[in-house]
């Protein structure tokens, strides 16, 4: 114990000595005891002289103030530097940070590098000075400041890099310049990625150049720069892997595919090819590869174009069961045209689609699976219930079901009927008697296309359907539509009233073209040219057309030619037309063309403003002229 006291510095107190004896196993206390002289040289004192202060941090406030004054930085930036080097401050004196900052700035390194790489300040000052000296010795470097990213590497790695660079002969003077020239990348960018893969200098020069030649022949230069570690692999392995990837349906090959193990890459590609699953790698490139494979596979299976396969892929949102489901349906005899037309059913899981098809195969009186496969868009439990109901129901003298009965009665293909029934599943729940009676009534008075397009009318009782058809037939004759059965009474009455008024104007067999010829005095050719110029005029109610024509010809004294030149006026609101014409009359304007009346409100207001301004200018000229 006496010898130990004699060896200790005089500045070490007996209290500290007792602490060392009691806690000699604590390396931190022993370290602090033997660095007391160094600590006293620093102008930042310890928190106190207690035993716990031996391992405490230096005063944070004083250090932050010092960093702020030295770097002229904000409080947030000095706080960031402190936190990044907090562990180093437990071992080294606080002066380490300030000395390193002064050293870096003396070598022309910007403060920005210090903020972006604060851990560099934790490097012992002597080591940091050696790194800077070594980097200046790197051959063929125009500006040593560009090499600052290498300061994050270990001193041993930098020594090895500089030693290798001095011994080898390579175009450009060093591997950094050589890689920059070969890839067309700026030197600072190459240095950035070289600093994170500094072990590239451990590769033999011949191997480095050979691997770089192979990679640049198959990969993008920018990708090679970002993944320099790929150059460390055996030349034969790189060549073999890149050749295998070249023969795959990949659109883009990236260096990470060269680096992954063969077994991992092989299993992932095998899973995609055989089972249509997503590959193991969570990478955008693999996703692109999977998508490309599915698109090409669909083109092959369905015999469709690239645009069609892309449309199917987008409709199904790239489901992983897409190819499996297509292959399964083709095996079951479903034709490619049906699969393309009803692509949403491919979104089902493989097991669910198998169950749905098995359920459809139990359907009695099934003529062809293509007739009912559109029902696969429904849930499995819905489809099972529908098939059970159809099997328990008998229609017609020949045993059939609702789909085939409707198709045979209307002349549609069963697949077209099934597609609409799948969208309107209530057609399977309507009582049989109501279904048969309504279908008979509709076929007697309506077109079959209108019936299939509007199946909602089947939900009404046959009595209401017959009464509505009778009311509508009295006014409209043969021009009946399913919506007349299901619309409210007020809507039906309004429609029938307008039909009566139109019929009174046109007569029984007169068309709107013939009315134009008679009312405006044109021949049929001129009247047709009006509708070609403004096709929407055909959809305007004839009663409204009559009111607009009467107002323009009788009240405003416009000619039929004015209307023929601007037929859009017939589609314009009569109320708005009257309002605008009255306003124009007040300001003394009678437009030669009716087109200004049909303009938007903004354009019309602009015209009125310009007219008033021009009139005021003319008045002033007359007064002072």
Task: Set down the secondary structure blueprint.
Layout: H1 2-7, H2 14-22, H3 27-34, H4 36-41, H5 60-71, H6 75-84, H7 95-106, H8 111-116, H9 125-136, H10 155-167, H11 175-183, H12 187-196, H13 205-218, H14 221-226, H15 235-246, H16 256-259, H17 262-275, H18 284-302, H19 306-315, H20 322-331, H21 336-341, H22 350-361, H23 369-372, H24 380-391, H25 402-410, H26 414-423, H27 432-445, H28 448-453, H29 462-476, H30 483-486, H31 489-506, H32 512-520, H33 524-533, H34 542-555, H35 560-565, H36 574-586, H37 601-624
Helix pairs in contact: 5-6, 5-7, 9-10, 11-12, 13-15, 18-19, 18-20, 22-24, 25-26, 27-29, 32-33
Structure description:
The chain has helices at residues 2-7, 14-22, 27-34, 36-41, 60-71, 75-84, 95-106, 111-116, 125-136, 155-167, 175-183, 187-196, 205-218, 221-226, 235-246, 256-259, 262-275, 284-302, 306-315, 322-331, 336-341, 350-361, 369-372, 380-391, 402-410, 414-423, 432-445, 448-453, 462-476, 483-486, 489-506, 512-520, 524-533, 542-555, 560-565, 574-586, 601-624. The chain is mainly alpha-helical and 625 residues long. Among the domains are: 60-258, no CATH class; 260-347, no CATH class; 512-599, no CATH class. One of its GO terms (molecular function) is nucleic acid binding. One of its GO terms (cellular component) is mitochondrial matrix. It holds the Pfam family mTERF.
Note the overall shape.
flat
Query: pLDDT below 50 for ≥5 consecutive residues: which ranges?
Result: 1-57, 272-289
Would you report the number of β strands?
A: 0
Supply the number of helical segments. Answer: 37
Question: How would a textbook summarize the main sheet?
Answer: none
Beta percentage is: under 5%
Q: Average pLDDT, to the nearest integer?
A: 78
The helix/strand class is mainly alpha
Radius of gyration: 44 Å
Oligomer: single chain
Terminal-residue CA separation: 123 Å
Kindly state the percentage of residues in helix. 55-70%
